[in-house]
Amino acid sequence: MTFTTHVRTLSIGRVRRQRQIVSAAIRISPSVTAGLDQTMLRLALAIGSKEVDDHVASNRASWDAAAENWVESGRERWADPVIRWGTWGVPEDELHLLPDLDGLEVVELGCGTGYVSSWLARRGAHPIGLDNSRRQLASARMLQQEFGIEFPLVHGDAERAPFRDASFDLAVSEYGAIIWCDPYRWIPEAARVLRPGGRLVCLGNSYLLMLTFPDDGEKATRSLQRPHFGMHAFVDADDDRNRVEFHIPHGEMIRLFRRSGFEIEELVEIGAPATASDAPYRMATVDWAQRWPNEQAWVVRKQ
Ligand SMILES: C[S@@+](CC[C@H](N)C(=O)[O-])C[C@H]1O[C@@H](n2cnc3c(N)ncnc32)[C@H](O)[C@@H]1O
Fold first, then answer.
1. Mutation pick for ligand 1 pocket among 131, 157, 189, 245 (CB with most ligand atoms within 8 Å)
2. Domain holding 291: CATH number?
């Protein structure tokens, strides 16, 4: 077995950014990878990904620096009475990701400006917003006061959630922990803080989007741009703070959920609605996303 590190560049988002995809590729057959002990696989990823060891600190610095850019879009969502998911704003009434919310104790992992929690609070849930960035939480606090909806906001890391075991009925993440935390750390943590029967609902970029997004472009392509095996951490080398995102293949995700004590209820793959129009900040065009999903949501239940 040989461990190697692949370093590539990837441009992403509104502005062309140089990124490195840092991943550990395991030069063995897929059937062996599938059976590989998870501890060994984690070790392989750690060996191959030294650059991401400080991802919580670099992501905190990056989000603190960017927080003010997210206030306006956060305010628009706070003002919207409808629960909408993701970059297309697809209504919850169409996706049906959430259980009946009334009375549920909820944690939002990577709450940002807190609009998802605000929607849940308005429907009778009792949310707590957890976020790694003090500046993002300051925006959330300001919007709470503006809209008169208050719930606890906690500064902390979703990979080491500062809550007792079995504290919540529901954990949610919309482009929070689901993309900014190491899945091998935050998914077991989500399982720990949920009560038996509790659900985790998390939505972010689709696996297919991350496979097809080019090194030197703005939007997803129609061809595979990087290996499936070893996909894990994406380091934004162009960001002053080297922020890091995480994306892993579906098979890995399923094994991780099951190993963490979750049963999988749904994987909802989301594309562009018929009425959608292109926007520079989206990583796929409408044309692309009407053929393939650019976003995905997992709904899993703690056993
Ligand atoms: C896209 S934003 C949040 C999404 C939220 N729906 C919004 O748009 O306001 C991502 C958030 O994840 C937070 N985050 C990143 N790493 C985190 C970690 N390790 N623990 C908790 N939150 C984290 C960031 O600080 C940021 O506020």
1. 131
2. 3.40.50.150
- In DSSP terms, 263 is beta-bridged to 301
Q: What is the number of the ligand 1 atom nearest to the C-alpha of 67?
A: 27
How many Å apart are CA 46 and CA 31, to the nearest integer? 21
CB contact at 8 A, 111 and 134: no
pTM for the full model? 0.86
Binding pocket residue ranges, ligand 1, CB within 6 Å: 56, 59, 63, 74, 110, 112-113, 116, 130-133, 136, 157-159, 174-177, 180-181
Rounded-to-integer distance, Cα 48 and Cα 38, Å: 15
CB distance 203 to 295 below 8 Å: yes
Using CA atoms, how far apart are residues 277 and 289, in angstroms rounded to an integer? 11
Q: Which domain holds residue 184?
A: 3-302
Domain count, the chain: 1
Structure confidence by residue, pLDDT tens digits, 44-97 = 333 334 444 699 999 999 999 999 999 999 999 999 999 999 999 999 999 999
